[in-house]
Structures are given as C-alpha cells and as structure tokens.
Write a structure and sequence with these properties.
globular, 287 residues, mainly alpha, 2-methylcitrate dehydratase PrpD, single chain
C-alpha cells in the first residue's frame, strides 16, 4: 500500500484520511483480522504500555545489575513539589519514560516500540497528551496506529537497530513515532505529523549507542526521558506551523547513512562512548 512517507501522505490526501485510518485498513488487509479484532489487539498493547509507564512511579524498581533504578519515582516526586524548571507536563512524561525503562531493565513486561531500549518514549508521550488533551483510551489506540505507520516506513527504508544505526535509530525513531502520533491526536495535519517526526530524528542525528557493560540500562533510560521531551517539543513545533526543510523520507535516508558511517565501537558494542570511560569499564569488569 505504501513504502515511503510521500506515498502515505498521498494516500491520506486521496482518501481524506488520517494516518491511523490508512494503517488500520492496511493491517486488516494483511492480517485478515476484523476491525474489532484489530482494535482489541491494540488495546491490549496499550494496556501493557500503561502498566509499564506507571509501575515505577510510586516504588523503587532496581535492575538486577544495580546500574539503574529508582529514578522514575525520584522524578515523579520531584514533579509533585511544584518547583520544577520544566513544569509538571515534561517531568511527568520523563517519569513515565523512566518507569518503562526500569521495568524493562528489571525483566518486566514492556512493549518494544520500536525496540526494548527505546520502549519508554511512546507510552510516556501518549499518556502525557491523554491527560493534557483529555483524551480517551480509544483515542490513544488511534495514536498507536499512527506511530506504527511511522515505524514501518523507517524499517522499510533504514533501521531501528542500535547495533546497526546507533541510538538515533532507537530513541530517535521512537521519538519520531511518538511525535507523529501526538500531532494527529492534537488535530494536526498529516504533513504536520511528518514534520514532527522529521524534527525528532534531526534533533538526535548521530546519537551513538554506548550501553555501559553492554546492558540496556544506562544511558538508555536517561535517553528515554530526553526522548519523550524531544517528541513533545517536536510535536509542538509542527503544530505551531514550523516545517521541516528536509522531508521525512530524506531524513530517514540521512539517518541510515549516518548509522553506516558510525564505527562499530559506537553501535551497541560497549566499546566506545560512555561505556569506554573509566567508570564504564569498571562496571563491565564487575558485571
């Protein structure tokens, strides 16, 4: 039905449809599920996301390695003291992103969207705008379909693997998926959704993947927190009417080329970046 953003935008215009509606049609055709069955499956995915995003907000969840944990609760508590720099919305989003990351690092159940290492960004963004815009779970399900469409385009034309493209391909793409979904949920145009997705990737172009001790814990969890902030500001830029000078398809192509240019030491091997610091090397030996 489509392989690129330009093709999806064209389809949306021809059918006067939102991105989510086109993705639903495509999934019904390819999966042979009924509309009701497909929506029910996505509701189950949303439920898992909601659980992981809120699980660590009121309790300390520590990873087996002890490299990460307890930060979601710290940020949630900090948010509630009314003295934050960025305000409640951003801090709430960061807390939920950290929560899913901590659930993942402690071997809990999460939704890898698009990967486990970047799994906190999309749930946190959706739940943040749910509260901000007074949305329903049914609305968020539509947002998930929009996000899926963005992710599909990237997978078809580039990568979402940190081992192949660095963290720009994981947290960057997760932010792009979330930003596009947020724009649609806020009533933005199809073009605005893709502008937001473009900004999200451009903002972290070249971001390396350097997990300490080779574990998807640090700095991954921190990048989930910054990733959801990236998604939300990218959505606001697009909703304000700011346009990406470079279209999404070309941004994805550029990201893929940048990933190919990265040395192996900066692509999930734990041989470079902060993994190769004195503290990082000590953690590797200890674990």
């Amino acid at each position: 039905m489509f392989n690129t953003a330009s093709e999806l935008i064209k389809l949306c215009k021809e059918r006067n449809s939102k991105i989510s509606q086109i993705i639903i049609e495509k999934e019904i055709e390819s999966s042979r599920l009924t509309h009701e069955e497909l929506i029910e499956k996505m509701k189950e995915i949303l439920s898992t996301m909601q659980n992981s995003a809120k699980y660590s907000l009121d309790k300390e969840v520590i990873s087996v390695s002890k490299l990460t944990g307890g930060n979601a609760k710290k940020v949630e508590d900090y948010k509630n003291n009314n003295k934050t720099i960025c305000g409640k919305l951003i801090n709430s989003a960061m807390a939920m992103a950290l929560s899913t990351s901590e659930v993942n690092a402690s071997m809990g159940r999460i939704v890898a969207a698009p990967t486990a290492g970047a799994s906190g960004i999309l749930p946190a963004a959706l739940l943040t705008v749910k509260e901000r815009l007074n949305l329903s779970d049914e609305d968020l399900v539509m947002g998930l379909f929009t996000a899926a469409g963005i992710g599909e385009i990237v997978v078809k034309n580039a990568t979402v693997s940190g081992a192949e493209g660095g963290c720009q391909a994981e947290c960057g793409v997760a932010s792009a998926m979330a930003a596009a979904a947020v724009v649609e949920l806020a009533g933005g145009s199809v073009e605005a959704s893709f502008n937001a997705a473009s900004f999200s990737i451009i903002n972290v172009m070249g971001l390396v993947c350097d997990p300490v001790a080779g574990l998807v814990e640090f700095p991954c969890s921190i990048r989930n927190a910054s990733g959801v902030a990236n998604a939300l500001i990218s959505a606001d830029l697009a909703l304000a009417g700011v346009k990406s000078f470079v279209p999404f398809d070309e941004v994805v192509e550029a990201m893929y080329k940048v990933g190919k240019l990265m040395p192996e030491s900066l692509k999930e091997t734990a041989l470079g970046g902060i993994a190769d610091t004195k503290t990082g090397r000590e953690a590797w030996k200890r674990l």
